[in-house]
């Protein structure tokens, strides 16, 4: 006797976002004891993983590079919401929260996600390849956004401290939006082929539905080489499935934002008890919200689709600055207290070193495990100096 198949709507990726939303409703505005905080942390992790799944379903439906863009923007929405909700308290230490979180996101994406993706791909395939034109354009945009929004406030004289004046903040917000908009247009319309995965012969991989004849033959016969897997060549989900995943993705993101806010007192307490600087809260927030990106990037690297990993990394860094800074600038209208965006001396050195190393990594269009290791060392240095400045 054949047992009936379990209907798809009872899968964990459907249940967990709804469970997380219920947990948010029950815990919002309440201080949680340690046991309950641990339970909420588990639910939060499940919501993050389900968000990754549904983002990948949507990405498979819309194709690359739109899929990477969907996840990058979704993660940035989480980041902006967390920063604003924590800054609403108006406490003095929140004046640097936006800077600390955005800088942490830049370091985690450009060194952490890039480094682990290159290392995973290189360990499995020896040398990993990507499109230098697309990755270089993304890196240039990230570096420019970081300089305009995080470096200049340290040296401007319009306001006391490492802060912009009102006019300078408006200028930085407008320029950030324009740069991000220009990049998205380049990535999705004008030069979309620059951001597609490359084959071993360095030619961009064909878009969805336009695979070369030899590749289609491999799929039809089941003879897929080790550079891909079944997911890469699977038929895209139906429109209904994609819309369902989009709805569940939004639910999961709302739950992640809310539960992270619920967990924030516990995070701040742990950071304080450990003797870490208050700025480390921004690092924890960035690590949390970038977990979906990291998982998706590593999965792509394991399939030797390193370009997608780089799209996710640089796209997230770009969105983190290009969307967060304008949102914070708008929120500063009603938020009390100063907004310190300028980086300190140690952070400036790390950022400059990251840009130089990233250029040397991207320009050849290929990388080995050495490049991945160098980026991961920079991430470890950032984390160590964040704990022991």
TrEMBL record:
Pfam families: Na_Ca_ex (PF01699). Keywords: Membrane, Transmembrane, Transmembrane helix. The keyword Membrane applies. It comes from the Bacteria. Residues 37-188, 245-386 form the Sodium/calcium exchanger membrane region domain. The keyword Transmembrane helix applies. One of its GO terms (molecular function) is potassium:proton antiporter activity. This is Ca2+:H+ antiporter.
């Amino acid at each position: 006797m054949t047992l009936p198949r379990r209907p798809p709507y009872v899968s964990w990726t459907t249940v967990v976002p709804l469970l997380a939303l219920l947990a948010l409703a029950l815990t919002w505005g309440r201080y949680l004891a340690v046991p309950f905080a641990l339970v909420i942390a588990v639910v939060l992790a499940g919501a993050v993983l389900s968000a990754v799944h549904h983002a990948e379903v949507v990405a498979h439906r819309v194709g690359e590079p739109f899929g990477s863009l969907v996840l990058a923007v979704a993660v940035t929405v989480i980041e902006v919401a967390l920063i604003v909700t924590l800054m609403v308290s108006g406490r003095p230490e929140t004046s640097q929260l936006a800077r600390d979180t955005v800088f942490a996101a830049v370091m985690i994406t450009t060194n952490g996600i890039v480094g682990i993706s290159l290392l995973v791909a290189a360990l499995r395939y020896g040398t990993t390849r990507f499109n230098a034109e697309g990755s270089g354009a993304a890196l240039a945009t990230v570096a420019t956004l970081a300089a305009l929004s995080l470096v200049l406030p340290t040296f401007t004289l319009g306001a006391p401290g490492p802060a912009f004046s009102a006019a300078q903040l408006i200028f930085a917000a407008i320029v950030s939006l324009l740069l991000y908009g220009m990049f998205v247009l380049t990535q999705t319309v004008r030069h979309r082929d620059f951001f597609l995965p490359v084959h071993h012969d360095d030619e961009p991989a064909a878009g969805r539905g336009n695979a070369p004849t030899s590749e289609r033959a491999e799929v039809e016969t089941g003879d897929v080489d080790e550079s891909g897997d079944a997911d890469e060549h699977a038929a895209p989900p139906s429109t209904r499935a994609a819309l369902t995943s989009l709805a569940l993705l939004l639910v999961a993101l709302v739950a992640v934002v809310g539960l992270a806010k619920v967990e924030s007192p516990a995070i701040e307490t742990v950071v304080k008890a450990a003797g870490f600087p208050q700025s480390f809260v921004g690092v924890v927030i960035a690590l949390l919200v970038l977990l979906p990106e990291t998982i998706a990037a590593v999965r792509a690297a394991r399939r030797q689709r390193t370009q997608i990993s780089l799209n996710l990394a640089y796209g997230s860094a770009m969105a983190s600055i290009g969307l967060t800074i304008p949102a914070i600038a708008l929120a500063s209208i009603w938020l009390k207290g100063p907004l310190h965006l300028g980086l300190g001396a140690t952070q400036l050195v790390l950022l400059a070193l990251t840009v130089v190393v990233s250029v040397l990594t991207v320009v050849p269009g290929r990388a080995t495990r050495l490049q991945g290791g160098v980026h991961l060392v920079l991430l470890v240095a950032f984390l160590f100096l964040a704990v022991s400045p």
